[in-house]
Write a structure and sequence with these properties.
Oligomer: homodimer
Order of helices and strands of chain A: HHEHHEEHHH
Number of helices of chain A: 7
Strand content of chain A: 5-15%
Largest sheet of chain A: 3 strands, antiparallel
Helix content of chain A: 55-70%
Largest interface: A-B, 61 and 60 residues
CATH superfamily of one domain in chain A: Winged helix-like DNA-binding domain superfamily/Winged helix DNA-binding domain
Shape of chain A: globular
CATH class of one domain in chain A: Mainly Alpha
CATH architecture of one domain in chain A: Orthogonal Bundle
Strand order of the largest sheet of chain A: 1-3-2
Number of strands of chain A: 3
Structural class of chain A: mainly alpha
Chain lengths: 168, 168
DNA sequence: CTTGGAATGTCAACAAAGCTGACGTATTGT
DNA sequence: ACAATACGTCAGCTTTGTTGACATTCCAAG
């Protein structure tokens, strides 16, 4: 099993050897560090962390989303998210309005100030992503997305696809 | 700028629109969660966390590595790593031996017990990676790795390439 | 209509794992 | 001899995750 790929005759399965797979694992590790490095640097100067970035990103992504919805997407506990949301609301970056249909729900929106922070953070991250895309080329990007999509949990793929297909 | 790609005439740059890039960002986020989910589940049952996994992985990867070397690869502070290393050594998963050439250095190795844990953790992660690879196919995997490599910081790419080119 | 359970969100207290800064020891090399 | 390096450790802080208790709101069964 440890040499599964190498015992295959064709080259088509060579990318499934333990060694190849391990390289992929380390590539994920190192790349994710680069992926978060730029926004992290910016957040450090302000009083926020990576969790704030995630919240702001997905509120920007799906304006009017509820706390529960965000909870499912982010995969954290209520309090973790709540602490972050509380500071964002207190600082006037996010607005929380009681639901009209269901008053238990709170609908979340970015304020102008929140949208400005979102742009600042995402621009840094997008720039790196964009330059990586440019270097690797369109076909590599397609493969990149295919593999990532196959790596997600079922539920998360659902969120991802649902978001991907949005047209508004 | 927000519609940069769409204002380009050719299709060759269409994958660089903000929307496309944002999809890539979310793909990274969701995929990384899947990527760490399986080992995290195992670690939860034992008394360890993700930090222990990383240490064990890279010690397995580069047996005899020094503390300093590990520090550079993992990108954390001495104290953070030391806390993890201390428990791993106390629990008999990692051995630390004084350097022969330079007695200031400590060379780290996995014990049999440590190697067993490494296998258990990595098997889960490798399985997911392998199945993602299989689903996406060799060309997608090549693209996947290209983009990830382009996304790393310079220093990390160095570590990655150095590791990639090892032949022992 | 009432009432009890389910769903949504808030708060308090705590744990894991990162960080900075300071300090001590052994070893190396100039 | 002395400065620099490699490692370990103490104290204290921040971010971000957890569990458990609680208030409010909705809905459906009696």
């Amino acid at each position: 099993m440890s040499q599964g790929g190498q015992s295959q005759s064709g080259q088509s399965l060579l990318f499934l050897t333990d060694e190849q797979v391990r390289k992929g694992i380390e590539a994920m590790f190192f790349a994710y560090r680069g992926f978060t490095a730029d926004p992290d640097r910016i957040l450090q100067t302000k009083a926020y962390g990576r969790a704030h970035h995630r919240a702001v990103h997905f509120i920007h992504r799906s304006p009017g989303t509820t706390v529960n919805n965000l909870l499912n997407i982010l995969g954290v506990t209520k309090q973790s998210l709540n602490r972050v949301l509380r500071t964002l609301i207190a600082d006037g970056l996010v607005s929380s309005t009681v639901g009209r249909a269901d008053k238990r729900e709170r609908h979340l929106h970015l304020t102008d100030v929140g949208a400005a922070l979102e742009r600042e953070l995402s621009d840094a991250q997008r720039d790196r992503m964009r330059s990586a895309y440019r270097r690797a080329g369109p076909e590599a990007v397609a493969g990149f997305r295919e593999v990532l999509e196959a790596m997600m949990d079922e539920d998360m793929r659902h969120h991802y696809v649902a978001i991907k297909d949005r047209t508004d």
